[in-house]
Amino acid sequence: MPYIGSSISNGVRRVHTYTATASQTTFTGASSEGVTLSYADTNYIDVFQNGVLLGNDDYTATSGTSVVLSQSASSSDLIVIICYDVFSVADTVSKSSGGSFDSAVTMSSGLRVADGGNIGSASDTDAMAISSDGVVNFTQIPTVNSKQLTNTPTFLAKMSGNQDVTSQSKTKVEFDTEVYDTDGKYDHSTNYRFTPTVAGTYFLYAQVDAKSNNNTELRDFFLVLAKNGSDLYVTRHNHTNNFSNREALNIQVTDVANTTDYYEVKVYVSDASGNPTLTALEPLGGDNGVASYFGAYKLIGI
After folding, report:
1. How far apart are CA 45 and CA 6, in angstroms?
2. Could you say which of 38, 102, 110, 302 is the most buried, measured as most Cβ atoms within 10 Å of its Cβ?
3. Cα–Cα distance for residue pair 171/150, rounded to 1 Å
4. In the 3-class helix/strand/coil scheme, how is the chain assigned residue by residue?
5. pLDDT band of 142, cuts 50, 70, 90
6. Which pLDDT value is given to residue 239?
């Protein structure tokens, strides 16, 4: 029978249909034409009078016993009471071995999002639960393919001041100031290296600004991302005979790290006379923007 109101996905437990007698306002199992509510929770019923859905002010429902209309019904009125079978928001659900919900399921562990996004069993560690007021609470971050949905560890570091380097000598860049370091995986005081310690795929990026000792003396410039002390990725600008004063090189790559791998940034700068300088800040219109930096973050789900 079509009716007014929202459909409940768990279905209807029972529909009570009956004709009222004149001035009959209480419908119970005690009267010949009455009905006793078979569903104890009156929050999940709809009451219709002649096809019209009544509001909460139009009737009073007593759990398991009766429905009392606020105004008298005539003998021609048709009263329909629909009781819905739903899960209480305070209940929790576990998955049966067959992949569907048992009819006598024990609701004790909380809804869980397990690996791959499937609903786990009651014995699994709780990850998501629904409170009595219907709020979903996460006690753990849901996982996909056994990889945590987080892009940490992540860091960003810069130089506190300029760094002088020797011309034509590979030198480690000392990014000694942390902008942020979520897990303390970047060493900004001794080795100036990033050791994530968490296996995964990482996005790594760096930029270094180099300045020659005098104008038009910067001949060759290498920027190196090293892994475990060995060159991994390199970018270069060779000026041949068209020497410049200063320039910045940057590099952006992804790499798979295990629990012991570490990353550093190195440079090789050739100056026509004297030694070049790695610059920390770039003044522009009176403002100082960061010119040299090094950062990384873990990619999600890889």
Report:
1. 11
2. 110
3. 33
4. CCCCCCCCCCCEEEEEEEECCCCEEEECCCCCCCCCCCCCCHHHEEEEECCEECCHHHEEEECCCEEEEEEEECCCCEEEEEEECCCCCCCCCCCCCCCCCCCCCCCCCCCCECHHHCECCCCCCCCEEECCCCCEEECCCCEECCEECCCCCEEEEECCCCEECCCCCCEECCCCEEEEECCCCEECCCCCEECCCCCEEEEEEEEEEEECCCCCCEEEEEEEEEECCEEEEEEEEECCCCCECEEEEEEEEEEEECCCCCEEEEEEEEECCCCCEEECEEEECCEEEECCEEEEEECCCC
5. low
6. 81
pLDDT, mean of residues 271-288: 85
The pLDDT score that the predictor gives to residue 148 is: 56
Cα separations in angstroms, 2 against 51, 53, 93, 212, 268: 9, 12, 31, 83, 79
Which tens digit of pLDDT belongs to each residue from 26-39? Answer: 454 333 344 555 55
Residue type, 157: A
Question: pLDDT category, 186, cuts 50, 70, 90?
Answer: very high
Domains, the chain, ranges and CATH? 12-84 (no CATH), 88-144 (no CATH), 154-298 (2.60.120.40)
How many C-beta atoms lie closer than 10 Å to residue 147's C-beta? 16
**Closest alpha carbon to 203 in 144, 148, 152, 159:** 152
